[in-house]
């Protein structure tokens, strides 16, 4: 690893300036040159610029594939003994919390059928072949195996739903027969509803052991064939979206930030802003007060959810390490989400301001990412987070710290979809807002002096005020700005130098083709901004023709050029992180293999490289998009072939 400056976000601004991704398969000489600020620290002078033929490829054992998640693709929600998950429960109870263009189709606001992968897994494998996948990341539905969430082994026999086991055996065996290595996620947000009802799910410390038991069953049953395990997918999204920012994500708890008021909810259960009061009696930690059932959402629920889910991850890893890893020889880690942070800079930014913005970019990354990645790497929350949260920050016990430390040292999974700018907030008179003092420190004040976002500001109803950081894809938060993956990879590599044995795996990265809801076609403010800072290649305006049109799937839906350019930008920046910066990145799973149930956006937002007509086609026919083939070609050209 080259020595980069303390704030690797520097690389973002500088490298992004000169690392022009014009033709991803063959970068020209000036495309890979770094400017002098980085040359000093990264020794870029010494880097021989490869000719077209010599482009340094990713190694032959690079993990290459696509990702999906059980609730988003499987369907068969109540078939063969599967229990209800929080996603079944809440999408059924609050269908208006999920977007749908066509509510006449009762399945358009839930995952009841989704891609029907439960019955059509062979069809999915055909799609994997087109992109030349050697890995496939899927998730296991906890409530398909243990309908009430409580895994128990009595007299040597597990209380499992055998049909569920048969399904995952089929998935794993089919993958292996096709020379595709399974990468299994144990938890991708579909908590068994019974545990939410019993004790409020992740808000209660008992969730930790229930998760570890369920994980033990999976290791024991599938671990002879599954050698890559991801414990938890995106703790931030699960907890912050599910327990604070709702009603976007199950279990639709929301406090704090502007709950959306829903209109005409069909069920009449549209409580305060569309958020749910339904919850079991919960104890955040052993010995804490018992919070009553069916209470209004409380402050800090997301913080406690995060705390418990991180410990649950560590306990599952402990079971694997103690009982299975030596024999099964697999690897285990966690998948973290979060935007890489780019110091804000425009033509008027002074060098002093830029320095300060770099500091704030790192701070913002510690809050957004380090909060979740530090515990499984170094055993505790970042010092900055603890100090600024004050008494609102949960504390790990010494035993928990011990379990956590190194619990993702086999590999670290990172999902990346966007980037944020960051800077210190200014008062109206131009002076800086100050950080909270120790006395003021609390959840509410913790980020009072910190700004980060992918828009330059927010208008009414959270509308984005341009410029945006790159062009806006089909979700408001999904921005096409390839250098973000390089910045983030460097941030992790620097922070956890020497601590990650088998490298970083990009466990998700993907693009929603611009659609009618959030398109920012002809966003001239963004175009002008990127031109003004010398990065015109990211001034990516697009016209109406690129916007998805369901009535013409042969158009930009299947011929998904915008998405192809996304993958080209991100993959080239990943390759540069490996080839130029020496980052140990070992895999890339594109999100997603197929269009699927996109949580709060239902089937209205498509991330897939395979088209499915969810509204009219009962067969759920898979139609490959152009991007699927593009990825297959990229793999052949940019990864060493054994
Ligand atoms: C991730 C999530 C996926 C998928 C993707 C696109 O946060 O893990 O399940 O929905 O975002 O929104």
3D architecture notes:
With 642 residues, the protein is an alpha/beta fold. It has one domain: TIM Barrel. It has helices at 9-18, 36-42, 70-73, 86-93, 117-130, 142-145, 162-177, 193-199, 206-222, 235-243, 301-328, 351-378, 383-389, 398-404, 483-495, 524-532, 553-557, 561-579, 626-638; strands spanning 63-67, 135-139, 153-154, 157-158, 181-187, 228-233, 331-337, 340-343, 412-415, 419-424, 450-453, 455-458, 464-468, 471-472, 479-480, 504-508, 585-591, 610-611, 623-624. The chain has an eight-stranded parallel β-barrel with strand order 1-2-5-6-7-9-16-17, surrounded by six helices. A three-stranded mixed β-sheet has the order 8-10-11. Strand 3 (153-154) and strand 4 form a beta hairpin. Helix 1 runs antiparallel to helix 15, helix 9 (206-222) packs parallel to helix 11 (301-328) and helix 18 packs parallel to helix 19 (626-638). It is globular. The two termini are 25 Å apart. The model is unreliable at 1-49 and 257-273 (pLDDT under 50). Bound molecules: beta-D-galactopyranose.
Molecular shape:
globular
Q: What is the CATH topology assignment? A: TIM Barrel
CATH architectural type: Alpha-Beta Barrel
Compute the number of structural domains.
1
Average pLDDT rating? 89
Spatially, the strands of the biggest sheet line up as 1-2-5-6-7-9-16-17
Q: Please estimate the helix content.
A: 25-40%
The CATH fourth-level homologous superfamily: Glycosidases
Structural class: alpha/beta
**Which CATH top level class fits?**
Alpha Beta
- Fraction in beta strands: 5-15%
Rg of Cα set? 23 Å
Tally of strands: 19
Distance between the termini: 25 Å
InterPro entries: GH (IPR017853), GH_1_N_CS (IPR033132), Glyco_hydro_1 (IPR001360)
Keywords: Glycosidase, Hydrolase, Signal
Family: Belongs to the glycosyl hydrolase 1 family.
Signal peptide: 1-16
């Amino acid at each position: 690893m080259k020595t980069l400056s303390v704030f690797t976000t520097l690389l973002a601004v500088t490298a992004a300036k000169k690392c022009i991704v014009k033709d991803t398969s063959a970068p020209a000489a000036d495309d890979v040159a770094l400017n002098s600020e980085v040359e000093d620290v990264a020794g870029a002078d010494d880097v021989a610029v490869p000719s077209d033929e010599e482009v340094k490829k990713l190694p032959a054992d690079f993990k290459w594939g696509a990702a999906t998640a059980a609730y988003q693709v499987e369907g068969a929600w109540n078939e063969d003994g599967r229990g209800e998950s929080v996603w079944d429960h809440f999408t059924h109870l609050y269908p208006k919390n999920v977007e749908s263009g066509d509510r006449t189709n009762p399945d358009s606001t839930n995952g009841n059928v989704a891609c029907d992968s439960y019955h059509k897994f062979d069809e999915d494998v055909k799609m994997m072949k087109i992109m030349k996948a050697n890995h496939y990341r899927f998730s296991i539905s906890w409530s398909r195996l243990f309908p009430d969430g409580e895994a128990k082994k009595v007299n040597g026999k597990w209380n499992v739903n055998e049909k569920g086991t048969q399904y995952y055996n089929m998935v794993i065996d089919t993958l292996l027969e096709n020379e595709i290595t399974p990468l299994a996620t144990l938890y991708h947000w579909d908590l068994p509803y019974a545990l939410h009802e019993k004790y409020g799910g992740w808000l209660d410390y008992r969730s930790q052991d229930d998760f570890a038991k369920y994980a033990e069953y999976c290791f024991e049953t599938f671990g002879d064939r599954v050698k890559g395990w991801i414990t938890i997918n995106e703790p931030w999204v699960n907890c912050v979206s599910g327990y604070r920012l709702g009603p976007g994500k199950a279990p639709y708890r929301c406090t704090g930030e502007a709950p959306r008021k829903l209109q005409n909810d069909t069920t009449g259960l549209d409580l305060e802003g569309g958020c749910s009061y339904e919850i079991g009696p919960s104890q955040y930690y052993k010995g804490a007060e018992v919070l009553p059932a069916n209470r209004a959402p409380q402050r800090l629920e997301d913080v406690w959810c995060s705390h418990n889910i991180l410990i649950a991850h560590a306990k599952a890893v402990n079971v694997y390490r103690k009982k299975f890893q030596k024999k099964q020889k697999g690897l285990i880690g966690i998948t973290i989400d979060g935007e890489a942070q780019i110091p804000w800079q425009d033509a008027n930014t002074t060098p002093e301001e830029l320095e300060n913005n770099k500091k704030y970019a790192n701070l913002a990354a510690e809050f957004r990412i380090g909060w979740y990645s530090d515990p499984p790497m170094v055993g505790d929350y970042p010092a900055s987070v603890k100090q600024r949260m004050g008494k609102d920050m949960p504390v790990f016990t010494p035993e928990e710290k011990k379990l956590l430390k190194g619990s993702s040292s086999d590999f670290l999974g990172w999902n990346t979809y966007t980037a944020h700018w960051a800077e210190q907030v200014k008062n109206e008179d131009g002076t800086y807002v100050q950080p909270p003092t120790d006395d003021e420190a609390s959840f509410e004040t913790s980020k009072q002096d910190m700004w980060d976002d992918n828009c330059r500001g927010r208008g009414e109803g959270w509308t984005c005020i341009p410029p945006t950081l790159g062009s806006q894809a089909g979700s408001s938060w999904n921005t096409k700005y390839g250098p973000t993956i390089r910045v983030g990879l460097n941030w992790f590599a620097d922070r956890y130098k020497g601590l990650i044995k088998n490298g970083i795996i990009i466990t998700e990265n993907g693009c929603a083709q611009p659609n009618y809801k959030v398109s920012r076609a002809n966003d001239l403010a963004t175009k002008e901004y990127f031109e003004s800072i010398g990065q015109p290649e990211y001034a990516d305006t697009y016209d109406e023709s690129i916007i998805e049109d369901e009535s013409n799937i042969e158009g930009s839906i299947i011929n998904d050029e915008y998405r192809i350019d996304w993958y080209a930008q991100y993959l080239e920046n990943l390759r540069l992180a490996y080839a130029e910066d020496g980052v140990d990145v070992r895999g890339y799973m594109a999100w997603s293999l197929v269009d699927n149930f996109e949580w709060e956006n239902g089937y209205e937002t498509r991330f897939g490289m395979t088209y499915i007509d969810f509204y009219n086609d009962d067969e759920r026919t898979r139609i490959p998009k152009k991007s699927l083939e593009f990825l297959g070609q990229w793999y052949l050209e940019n990864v060493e072939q054994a």
